[in-house]
Structures are given as C-alpha cells and as structure tokens.
Design goal:
Oligomer: single chain
Strand order of the largest sheet: 1-2-3-4-5-7-6
Shape: globular
Order of helices and strands: EHHEEEHEHEHE
Structural class: alpha+beta
Strand content: 25-35%
Length: 152
C-alpha cells in the first residue's frame, strides 16, 4: 500500500469515491472545483497503481487541522486503508506542530477507533465560522465532531 500526495490526475477518482458515499448519505458531497482548489491537502492510498482511497488534511488555524473528505473504495473498507490515511494525516499534523486534529463526520465509531473523541461542535469556533457557514446543513449540522489532541 502506497500513501502519497494527490495529483491533479487523481481528481476524477477522488470525486467518484466521495460521490459514491455522498449519494448514500454517508458523507457530504464535494464539488470538483473544491477538489482542484484543495488538491494539495489530499493524500491518496494506492494499490498496484490504482487509487483506492483518499482524504485531506486541511489546516484551519495555528493549532487546528481537519481530516475531511475521507473515502475508501467499498471493496477496500475494513482493511485498514482508512486508518492508514488517518495515521498519515496525524503524522503530517505532528510534523507541522499542529496539536489538534478534528473531523466532522457521520463515521464517529471509525474515528473513535483511530483515537479520536467526540466533542461539542462549539469547541471548534474557527471551523464553524470559516467553513461551516457556507454548508447547506448549517446551522442544523447532523455530523459528529471528533477530536484528537496529539501535542506538538
């Protein structure tokens, strides 16, 4: 399994993975424009030259980063691929001296297994006002907020 930074040529595959789960109501949809704009945030998991999972670590503040748009191809779920991506993001945050990593998710059990704890969304003010205000679900977000404090 190779974990690497995403390339522009990965956008269609990343979009397809996210769209698959968004149609099932398991994650928020992401427009292609957002994927292109934030491609440098994305990491992909690749097996035998095929992208099988993707996600992003998005820096929001000096002490806060978000794991977002994490999606694993259905045939690769429950095989540690998503956990590997999360570990990659946590390591990246640690290397950048960002002590807190969070996610807004419908998959809080998965994140709990990765060491995250459920927290109140109100503890994430930078996220709420910077990103969430443009979300169609704001202010009635039904996702859980999860947080991992990793130190620096």
């Amino acid at each position: 399994m190779l974990y690497r930074k995403a390339r522009i040529t990965d956008v269609e595959t990343i979009h397809a993975l996210i769209t698959h789960y968004a149609k099932e109501g398991l994650m928020l949809a992401r427009p292609r424009a957002m994927l292109y704009e934030f491609i440098r945030d994305f990491t992909v998991a690749e097996e035998n030259g095929k992208v099988i999972a993707a996600g992003a670590l998005h820096i929001l503040w000096e002490d806060l980063a978000e794991v977002r748009a994490l999606a694993v191809a259905p045939e690769y779920t429950k095989k540690g691929v998503g956990r590997g991506l999360v570990q990659t993001f946590v390591r990246e945050a640690w290397e950048l001296s960002i002590p807190k990593v969070f996610s807004l998710t419908y998959q809080d059990v998965f994140f709990n297994k990765c060491g995250f704890s459920i927290v109140s969304k109100e503890t994430l003010p930078h996220k709420v006002w910077k990103e969430c205000i443009d979300c169609p679900k704001f202010p009635n977000c039904d996702e859980s907020a999860v947080l991992l404090e990793i130190g620096s």
